[in-house]
Design a protein that fits this description.
Elements (H helix, E strand, L loop, with lengths): L1 E7 L25 E5 L57 E2 L4 E5 L12 E10 L6 H5 L4 E5 L5
Parallel strand pairs: 4-6
Antiparallel strand pairs: 1-2, 1-5, 3-4, 5-6
Length: 153
């Protein structure tokens, strides 16, 4: 687990609207972030925001795919592959680098409440949360990842 600094982003424009006219669609960071840690894995299980109970009322959960990356459509009740069923994370949700210091991806979280559809900026500190002199954590020093707890609005 690598140590990070987490900055949460708002989902509205500076005037409180969602029209994307005030700041060319850019979300505004909440200045006071917090320290935490992140694991580094990809398990292909059904995403957290793929369950109806984990998204806000009126919002569709994230779609899932089968083992061949074919969409399960609007079958939001399909059970996770990690429970032996056919609800996998779709390939298009794999993280990807846009430069040597910036990447984008989706977050897997063990949290509840209204977290789906929110963006977070992870700033990697280069230290391990629990593994001492970890070369993997050192390699991430100074890098940033923007993650989304995805919803399909």
């Amino acid at each position: 687990m690598t140590s990070i600094h987490i900055i949460t982003y708002t989902d509205t424009d500076p005037d409180g609207s969602n029209d994307n006219n005030d700041d060319q669609g850019q979300a505004d960071p909440i200045v006071d972030g917090l320290d935490g840690y992140a694991t580094r894995y990809w398990d292909c299980c059904k995403p957290h925001c793929g369950w109806s109970d984990n998204v806000s009322e009126g919002v569709n959960p994230v779609g899932t795919c089968n083992r061949n990356n074919n969409s399960n459509g609007e079958d939001y009740m399909v059970t996770s592959s990690c429970d032996g069923s056919n609800g996998f994370t779709c390939y298009n949700m794999a993280p990807y680098a846009v430069s040597d210091i910036l990447s984008y991806g989706y977050a897997a979280v063990s949290a509840s409440g209204d977290i789906c559809g929110k963006c977070y900026q992870l700033e990697f500190k280069g230290t391990s949360h629990n593994a001492g002199d970890d070369p993997g954590s050192k390699a991430l020093a100074g890098k940033t990842m923007i993650v989304l707890n995805a919803d399909d609005q």
